[in-house]
User: Fold this.
Amino acid sequence: MAKRLEVLIPAARIEERVRELGERIGADYPQGPLYLIGILKGSFFFLADLARHIHTPTRIDFIGISSYGKGTSTSGEVKLTKDLDISIEGQDVLVVEDIVDSGITLHYLSSLLEQRKPRSVRIATLLDKPDRRQRVVEVAYSGFQIPDKFVVGYGLDFNEDYRSLPDVCVLDPG
Ligand code: IMP
Ligand code: MG
Assistant:
């Protein structure tokens, strides 16, 4: 049976907020280069839009981490599915994530990146579900705090569906 979708954050609000975040990030790193590290696959819309509002030189790479198996709740298991192509040693790094939920993914990734001796590491996330946190993660740039609902769209998926929706939607509300 087809699942129901309800718009939670319309595309226009996302666009406005991403612009604000990008401009703030650019001002916080006036020199550059800032290394934007997107976590595949969910962050790729956010990273693409954010990067165009960061008025500082950037370099872009992606890392693959999976913590969710299939379905809507975390397995607690994290694995590296694709490593970075470039070295981040001595560089300012901004990890770009679609959503922080339990915090397990970013907790794991932060310690992995620290081993590579970057100059600094901060986190930017489009969405944050603070109610679900199991690990402490410090988020420097957060787009929207959302309630404990499963969301899709603007890069976020449910079993690989719905990523290309322009709005962030709650899947099967009610
Ligand atoms: P965490 O490790 O529990 O913080 O999970 C983070 C990852 O789980 C995110 O990068 C997403 O890929 C996925 N995730 C968490 N909540 C949602 C959701 O509501 N919709 C889609 N994916 C989600
Ligand atoms: Mg993800």
Summary: The chain has a mean pLDDT of 93.
